[in-house]
């Protein structure tokens, strides 16, 4: 049993290195408290691997990966757009973030991390790796090893995110996080419905959505700043005239 756990741990840890799930962990760690992110990843990892070793072995060929990928992509894109919206100057999200209770923020962040990881991992290649291992080894040992391997890979990404996040302005972190979520959403869609294009093309096409969103964000920030400057100038002028 110990051998199976170590084998599965190594396989899943290596499979997760550089995968979109690890990049998601890094991105979430830049935005939320590391413990909340780690807890969400842990729960999602144990849940998705339980599905893989429990029922995935029997319905793996019928798993609706396309539908799952669609939900995962919608979740990631929604998170990305929401994050970018909150970076606009004077947006209400800034004030809400400051006044919201810590417990409320932690709960919403946990649910966001949990749902994003759960959807992203369902139908992913690492889930099918767990399926393959479960057909040859004990399901319990595979479940524990696979879950710990995914958590370890996510924990490594969180460590990098926490370290890097200390040296980056919070608004820049939010902008980069939003763009990365859009990138992951596009990549998830293309992986599921256009995998024949090949990895290099998918990686390139996935950058279209964040590139467009970044350009629109810059334009909106510029327009909002000009309006605020104009309003400030008119206010100053009216004070002088008064």
Q: Could you characterize what this model shows?
A:
This protein is mostly helical and 242 residues long. The protein has one domain (2-231). Helices cover 84% and strands 0% of the residues. The chain has eleven helices and no strands. The chain has helices at residues 2-16, 20-31, 34-59, 65-85, 92-99, 102-121, 125-134, 139-165, 170-193, 199-205, 208-241. Helix 1 runs antiparallel to helix 7 (125-134) and helix 4 packs antiparallel against helix 9. The chain is elongated, with a radius of gyration of 21 Å. The N and C termini lie far apart (83 Å).
Portion in beta strands: under 5%
Helix coverage percent of residues?
over 70%
Biggest beta sheet attributes: none
- Counting DSSP H or I runs of 4 or more residues, the number of helices is 11
* Sheet/helix structural class: mainly alpha
Shape: elongated
Overall radius of gyration: 21 Å
Instruction: Summarize the helix and strand pattern as letters.
Output: HHHHHHHHHHH
What is the overall pLDDT average?
A: 78
Give the tally of β-strands: 0
């Amino acid at each position: 049993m110990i051998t199976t756990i170590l084998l599965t741990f190594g396989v899943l840890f290596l499979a997760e290195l550089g995968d979109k799930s690890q990049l998601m962990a890094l991105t979430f760690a830049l935005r939320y408290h590391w413990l909340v992110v780690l807890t969400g990843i842990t729960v999602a990892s144990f849940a998705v691997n339980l599905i893989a070793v429990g029922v995935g072995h029997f319905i793996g060929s019928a798993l609706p990966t396309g539908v799952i990928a669609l939900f995962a992509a919608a979740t990631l894109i929604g998170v990305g757009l929401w994050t970018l919206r909150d970076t606009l100057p004077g947006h209400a999200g800034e004030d809400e973030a400051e006044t919201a209770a810590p417990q409320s923020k932690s709960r919403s962040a946990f649910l966001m991390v949990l749902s994003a990881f759960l959807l992203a991992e369902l139908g992913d290649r690492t889930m099918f790796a767990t399926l393959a291992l479960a057909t040859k080894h004990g399901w319990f040992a595979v479940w524990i090893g696979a879950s710990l391997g995914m958590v370890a890979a996510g924990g490594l990404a969180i460590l990098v995110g926490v370290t890097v996040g200390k040296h980056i302005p919070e608004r820049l972190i939010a902008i980069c996080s939003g763009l990365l979520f859009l990138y992951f959403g596009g990549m998830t869609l293309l992986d599921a419905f256009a995998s024949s294009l090949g990895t290099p093309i998918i990686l390139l096409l996935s950058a279209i959505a964040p590139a467009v969103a970044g350009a629109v964000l810059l334009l909106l920030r510029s327009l909002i700043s000009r309006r605020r400057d104009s309003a400030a100038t008119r206010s100053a002028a009216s004070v002088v005239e008064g």
